[in-house]
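Page 37, continued from 36.
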C-alpha cells in the first residue's frame, strides 16, 4: 500500500484554494478536509451566542483567541485519524495564524499522532488587484470586512510567507479565471500556467 501523504493547500479567500484542494484530493484519492466544513457551523453559532458578528473573523479577538485554535486542532486531529488508517489527506484552510511557527507541523504531527507522512504545501497565488476584484464580484458577507480593510487584510493574508520546516512547497499561479469544470490537478503543474520549480525543504 502506498504511504499516505499530506497536502496542505493555502491561499487567501478568492484565490481558488478550494478548487485546487478538491482537484488534488480527487487525483490522489485523498480525504478532503475543509476547515470551514469541519467546524464552520459551530464557530458561527459560538460567535453569535457570544454577541459577535459570525461573518467577521479577521478582526475578532474573541475568535482568534478562543475558536481559531479549536478549529485547527480539530482539523489536525481528523487528519491524523485518516493518516493512521492509511488514507492521504488534503487540508483546505488559510493557516495564516501559524505561518511564523517553523515547527508548527512537527508539533501537531506529534500531538495528533501523524505517522510521519510526506507533506506538500501548495500555495495558491493571485495578484493583489485580481484578488480584490474577485472578492468584490462574488459579493459574500464574509468578504465585506476584507474589502473595507483591504491593505490590512492583504498585509496579513496575501503574502503566504510560510516558515514551516520539513515540507515541499509548490507554488501555483492562479491569476486566470477559474475553470467552470475543474480539470485534474497534476502535482507538478498549476491550474492554469505551469508553476515555478518545486522548492524543497528539509525532510519531515
Amino acid at each position: 500500500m502506498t504511504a499516505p501523504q499530506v497536502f496542505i493547500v493555502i491561499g487567501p479567500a478568492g484565490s481558488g484554494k478550494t478548487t485546487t484542494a478538491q482537484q488534488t484530493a480527487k487525483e490522489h484519492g485523498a480525504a478532503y478536509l475543509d476547515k470551514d466544513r469541519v467546524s464552520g457551523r459551530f464557530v458561527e453559532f459560538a460567535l453569535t451566542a457570544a454577541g459577535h458578528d459570525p461573518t467577521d473573523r479577521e478582526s475578532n479577538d474573541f475568535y482568534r483567541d478562543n475558536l481559531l485554535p479549536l478549529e485547527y486542532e480539530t482539523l489536525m486531529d481528523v487528519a491524523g485519524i485518516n493518516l493512521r488508517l492509511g488514507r492521504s489527506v488534503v487540508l483546505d484552510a488559510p493557516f495564516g495564524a501559524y505561518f511564523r511557527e517553523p515547527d508548527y507541523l512537527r508539533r501537531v504531527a506529534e500531538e495528533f499522532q501523524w505517522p510521519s507522512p510526506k507533506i506538500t504545501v501548495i500555495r495558491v497565488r493571485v495578484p493583489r488587484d485580481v484578488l480584490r476584484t474577485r472578492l468584490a464580484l462574488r459579493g459574500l458577507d464574509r468578504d465585506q470586512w476584507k474589502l473595507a480593510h483591504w491593505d490590512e487584510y492583504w498585509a496579513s493574508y496575501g503574502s503566504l510567507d510560510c516558515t514551516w520546516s520539513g515540507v515541499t512547497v509548490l507554488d501555483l499561479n492562479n491569476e486566470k479565471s477559474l475553470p467552470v469544470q475543474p480539470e485534474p490537478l497534476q502535482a507538478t503543474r498549476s491550474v492554469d500556467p505551469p508553476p515555478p520549480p518545486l522548492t524543497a525543504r528539509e525532510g519531515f
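The radius of gyration is 17 Å. Flag for discussion at group meeting. The helical segments are 17-28, 35-49, 61-84, 104-111, 128-138, 144-148, 150-157.
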